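Quick illustration for those who missed Monday's session on complexes.
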Amino acid sequence: MHPFAISPANDAAKAIAAHALDPELAFIAGGTDLIGLMKDRAVLPERLLDINGLPNMARIEALPGGGVRIGALARMSDVAADTEVRRRFPVVAEALLFSASGQLRNMASIGGNIMQRTRCAYFRDETDGRCNKRRPGTGCAALHGFNRNHAIFGWSECCVATNPSDLAVALAAMDALVIVRGKAGERQIPFTDFHRLPGGAPERDNVLDRGDLIVAIEVPVSVEARASHYLKVRDRASYEFALVSAAAAVATEGGRISSARLAMGGVAHKPWRVTAAETGLRGVSLDDVDGLRSAIATSFVDARPLAHNAFKVELAQRAALRALQTAGGRL
Ligand SMILES: Cc1cc2nc3c(=O)[nH]c(=O)nc-3n(C[C@H](O)[C@H](O)[C@H](O)COP(=O)(O)OP(=O)(O)OC[C@H]3O[C@@H](n4cnc5c(N)ncnc54)[C@H](O)[C@@H]3O)c2cc1C
Ligand code: SF4
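Prediction with flavin-adenine dinucleotide bound:
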């Protein structure tokens, strides 16, 4: 195990300044991803700053207009069990409940969840093979290696990894905002802009800079949110990451979809919002399975599967259809 020093933070401004100045320092919250990455020697910070003592960052607040604000230090299990989150945003509560295990959810924070790194086996491999995300410039072993769990959208020759967070898929569908405090003060990042595509710099998962601390996530009210559902397809029924997943939400008028939100997980380096499908779904009846299928298919014409994951193209569309139907059943 890589040796490190750990100290507690109790002042957000000082924590941000320390992180901005020291490239060998990492924030630690629940530690459920970071410590694993250190054991795998994928990241080797010299100093950990324990942010669990920072004030006012673990609250879950129902906002007056119908949204919720979730502190970055709120635990996954607390958010999943929160009455207002469950009532207002079932898709968020379900994405959390389908994640990891009960013990991990008790420990893991919301901020840490959206920061978690890919489960690509080459990235996590302590033998330190070819991986541009782990060691930039070394190549991508998955591109022509075993890539069953990898991306079908948005990948580059430099990296074909997927984002593993279930919650992130639900938050992308809900157009959540990431509230970040940094050197220049506080800013809001639309969730769909928070994670990056790999391009030529796959070592960067998201748009945060050094000194950026996630303080909260805000999920705004929407007409579709209450009729929402998260569907996760995985190799075993629990304690497993998604092969593909779908976060769906719908509103209807006169029995036809008036608006839909649909985001896919397990298919790209970031949660993948399928906007062409959302447009095509407008006006389709929830009983018209062929109509729903063909609207969803419009977002999959540009899928680029790899050698071992062509099955995801069909599987993801089926997951999207089932998630939409289940969401619609909640109207
Ligand atoms: C066996 C196993 C199975 C799992 N299965 C799933 C699953 O099915 N679905 C799923 O979604 N997840 C799964 N996970 C991942 C788990 O959800 C994450 O490990 C967890 O959410 C990370 O939260 P944490 O608080 O422990 O983060 P930490 O490990 O403490 O931190 C993770 C990263 O986030 C950074 N960070 C933490 N908080 C902040 C902040 N406020 N601002 C800026 N940076 C911050 C840290 O510096 C670090 O880089 C699994 C994990 C394990 C170990
Ligand atoms: S897919 Fe990305 S994370 Fe996996 S080996 Fe290639 S560069 Fe590394």
